[in-house]
Amino acid sequence: MGVIWEIDFYSRPLIDERQKKVWELLICESPSTTEQATTELFRYAQYCPSDKVNSLWLGEALQAAMLTAKQSPQRIRFFRRQMNNMITKACKDIGVPAAASRRSIALRQWLNERMEHFYPSLPNYQAVNSASVQMFSDPPQPLPEALIGEKWTFVSLAASQFADMSEWQVGFGEAFPLDMVGVTPQMEIPGLILYSPRSVPLAAWMSGLEIVAVRYQPAPKSTLLLETGASESWIVARLEGTTQQEAAQFEASKQRSYGVHFIAIQASPDVEEFAGFWLLYESNDS
What is the enclosing helix (H) or strand (E) of 75? Predict the structure, then answer.
């Protein structure tokens, strides 16, 4: 899998000499394995004058970042829906696919660090009421009937078991370093496994969704949801009885693992390989 960039192009709590908001482009490489050291991730920051905020400037800045990185990303992720048109156009102009996605773990951690420590240290800092980014989910929609798993089960794995994830047989998927979000080897990581004889088509379809999280929604209807993209939500299963209790326990386990969990796809419980495996992180603002 090629390199994926997470980007944010937005105003910061900084003002210029004309008392105008300073805009900034932040780029961070998405981690792709549990072994990848965060120090290896490419980072790039460039300020933009408020009167230059447009897709042309953004496209040129992205190309400058590619020269610095000495490579082009396979695709670009961004989480601000209000910037969709500008970012999409800029990326199209330079020939890189872009997707709105809440799966921007590395970037949002970096942005939070800058909001808390870096920007306040600058002389042109202007305090704001709230630096957090609120994420929203659209009303859930059913999974395509041909892609619904025949069976599913909640499981858990010790965080230490992910140390050799690169050696697992996985068709489609994505991961990140667990220590990036504070997970220790002793923690239990909860997950959901979907079983389907159509496991490969299901995993291939899900690989294009920008998978964010698996979430239990107890009301108004007890539902197991798959969160994807910038705001999409899919119904994995309707729950009742003991499955509701299991789903509630799954959510409690996610809290203990700092929001880290996973979703996996297999043809049956008897096979060892995964058609798909995604390590997921649900932060408080996801």
Answer: strand 75-78
> What is the identity of the amino acid at 229?
G
Q: Looking at the DSSP assignment, which residues form a beta bridge with residue 280? A: 261
Could you tell me if 151 and 195 are in contact, meaning their C-beta atoms sit under 8 angstroms apart? yes
In this structure, the number of other CB atoms found within 10 A of the CB of residue 216 comes to 22
Please state, in angstroms and rounded to a whole number, the distance separating the CA atoms of residues 58 and 72: 15
Q: How many CB atoms lie within 10 A of CB 137?
A: 19
pLDDT, tens digit (0-9, with 9 covering 90-100), for 229-282: 988 999 988 888 888 999 999 999 999 999 999 999 999 999 889 999 999 999
Q: How many Cβ atoms sit within 10 Å of the Cβ of residue 286?
A: 19
Per CATH, the number for 4-121 is: 3.30.420
Distance CA 181, CA 173 (A): 19
Classified as helix, coil or strand, 38 is helix
* Chain centroid to CA 243: 27
Instruction: Write the CA distances from 274 to 11, 162, 175, 199, 279, integer angstroms.
Output: 42, 14, 14, 9, 13
Encoded tokens for 215: 């979430």
Instruction: To the nearest 10°, report the CA torsion of 60, 66, 68, 70.
Output: -150
Distance CA 224, CA 244 (A): 9
| Beta strands per DSSP E along 42-169 | 43-48, 75-78, 98-100, 141-142, 151-158
Query: 42: closest CA among 126, 138, 115, 107?
Result: 107
- C-alpha distances out from residue 5 to 9, 28, 73, 102, Å: 13, 6, 6, 13
Contact 50, 20 (CB under 8 A): yes
Predicted model pTM? 0.88
Judged against a pLDDT cut of 50, whether residue 132 lies above it is answered with: no
Q: What are the extents of the domains in the chain?
A: 4-121, 141-281
